[in-house]
Amino acid sequence: MKLILVLTVTIKLAIVSATDTEWWKTALIYQIYPRSFKDSDGDGIGDLTGIKEKLPYLKSTGVDGIWLSPIYLSPMRDFGYDITDYKQIAPEYGTMKDFQELLKEARKLGLRVILDFVPNHTSNESDWFIRSARREPGYEDFYVWADGIVDPERPGEVLPPSNWVSHFRRSMWEYHPGRGQYYLHQFAIGQPDLNYRSQRVQAEMKEVLRFWLDLGVSGFRVDAINKLYEVDPNDYGGVYPDEPLSGISDTDPDDYEYYDHIFTQDLAETYEVVFDWREVLDEYTETHGEYKIMMTEAYTNLFNTILYYGNENRDGAIPFNFIFLEEINKNSTARDIKTTIDKWMTYMPHGRVANWVNGNHDQSRLASRQGPERVDAMNMLALMLPGVALTYQGEEIGMTDGHVSWEDTKDPQACNTDDPINYWKKSRDPSRTPYHWDSSVFAGFTCGVEPWLPVADNYKELNLQVQLRSRRSHYNFYKDVVAVRKTAASKYGDLGILAYTEDILVVTRLLPNARGIVGVINLSNKPQLVDLSSVTLLPKYLKVVASGVNCTQTKGFILLKDYIIVSNNCALLLQTISRCC
Ligand code: NOJ
Ligand code: MG
């Protein structure tokens, strides 16, 4: 009896001590846009088996986890962000068995799988929506329904409940003849917003989280979180109040930017829901032996963003750092970049985990946004700053935006412009073109029919295979920096940022013994001499551990800290060494 007790206690202790509660704090998370990553069955659309085939590549790159953009059953009006059933896999991406095999393979390789959780809206083809439109008991208030306003000019006709305009243009309200009411959609007409004032919706969405957690996923990226609530008409005399104009003159009244969205985003209620989800995830930490990560997507101001972290009473999520993505551009100086990094580190609540986002499927690719010459610099920064690093597929090889003609355009945000000339200003297709694996037809993305979006023109010169073979490439540099990311200095070293000049940015991560790493970036088009003797803690000798495509030094070179020549647009990663040779 005694022995059994001792054994149970020991086993329990073993389980507890095996729980990995730290992995996420320094994780490198690689975003996969499944439709465009790798097609295994030749239908021109990427799929789960394609992703599984490429897991060894991601492992060898040094990635810790993959975040998959939505893989669920969907009519694909917004390419998976319009979900018919949260618990089924889209047939074009595979089956539940394929997903489980992907998970198994990932686990074998030590890679974690993170899913996209899309709580704000479903597809209008979802069973919930169909039932709600029919006013089936229990489902009546699953969505945001409202009566129209009687049109004073045309008696018998109704107008939308308010002037609210959707992200993808035109009214946020769509009339549903079956129900005789309008429903709200922050995005496409096919994406009705769920009603978070319904406790049943809240409960169902927690069940969705549990369903995937039970299967063994390591966490979620949460879509459009700040759109979860709109104001309650009961607080406004029973009506939905109109939103004021933003004052941005060069847009038209059908455009989202035309209005200031004070009633349809960032509502205080949102945060409590996130904290509740955090609790659901925390239920799994011990039983699954790992902390489950949650990252929230909200394009909003810094003040509203950092609230997602949580407070003294409740834990929250890692809010995506979009100032890193949005404020830094082609013309940013070293001082600008330092200011942006400092801003996040300053406003982030103490003890929370930072993160650095260089791109995603909604933004122009890093190499196009910032210029190909800044790819190494920005990748190195995201990878060497403290906290979580996020890489959107293709950034490790510096892929650029593809050209997608009006005829080939698929993104609803672009299609809704109805404008064959200016559609590209709204289009997210250019950053969603297929991944460039090699120089073969369709860049090795598919062996079958034409891909769902055209492959970018430059794939023959810019692809993974070419970069794997060349001595200096964005990929090889990226991989070298990722390897250094696994060291103690990169994980725990104190952060120092020095805007040496307008052109030179220096980032240090030093441990108490003054061991550590130094990133030196030259943003200019000419070589520069950098003297780091003012960084007193830094030892005299530094070894090159990663050298960007524009640098002259090779890996293994020893440099003196007071005499570092950095060629134009070069990003160098150096490690302290105690002795010269
Ligand atoms: C953000 C997603 O990243 C984007 O692709 C999508 O269109 C909207 N949310 C709506 O789900
Ligand atoms: Mg909403």
TrEMBL record:
SMART domains: Aamy (SM00642). It is an enzyme of class 3 (hydrolase). It catalyses: Hydrolysis of terminal, non-reducing (1->4)-linked alpha-D-glucose residues with release of alpha-D-glucose. Pfam families: Alpha-amylase. Residues 31-432 form the Glycosyl hydrolase family 13 catalytic domain. GO terms for molecular function: alpha-1,4-glucosidase activity. InterPro entries: GH (IPR017853), GH13_cat_dom (IPR006047), O16G_dom_2 (IPR045857). CDD domains: AmyAc_maltase (cd11328). Its EC number is 3.2.1.20. One of its GO terms (biological process) is carbohydrate metabolic process. Keywords: Glycoprotein, Glycosidase, Hydrolase, Signal. Residues 1-18 form the signal peptide. Belongs to the glycosyl hydrolase 13 family. This is alpha-glucosidase. It comes from Leptidea sinapis.
